[in-house]
Amino acid sequence: MKIHLVAIGLACWLTAAPASAVVTPFGGAANGTDPLGNLWTASANHWGEPGYLAGDEIFNSMMVSSGSGDYATSFSFTFLKGVDGTIDQTPSATPFGSGPETRFTNVTDGVAWLVSYANGNVTFTAPNMAARLDPSDHFFVNVQFTGFVDPARFSFAGLWDDARVGDVPEVASWMMMAAGFGLLGFTLRSRRVHSTLPA
Fold first, then answer.
1. Residues 27, 10: one domain?
2. Which residues constitute the domain of residue 189?
3. What percent of the chain shows pLDDT beyond 70?
């Protein structure tokens, strides 16, 4: 009986854990199209979707779904070669406009995503699930470099994923986790009570 309660408690705890995110990689040369049909362009000292001063794009207009979702909460780009200099980390003064700074904007919701940098990589993350990119949302991404892009040698790798960000877990997740811990506590307590009773 106790083993069954422990198994049920563990099952409740595991089902309360979030599902793993779906990661969609892409990349290529100076100009191209990502798996969702969005164009990217590298020129002068910028790379972006759709390109510096080229407006915005519609996210996932083809309604591609991973089975877990059809939205994005994070984009990460690593610039491999063909750039003289590094990613310019100057903070954006105009996150919703078309300034030259490195930034990602969910235009539909009017939200600039969070930016982090590491060794030739830049990651843009939605500050919360309300700011995620849903199908048909308008967005743009711009990466500015401290040097110029050589289109003949330029290459990058990118990915987007749909991991949950910045939200409090759902009530059902809290309930399942509490039930799991409750069953584990009950099992441990009953084991302790039985071991202290006189024989």
1. no
2. 2-14+171-196
3. 69
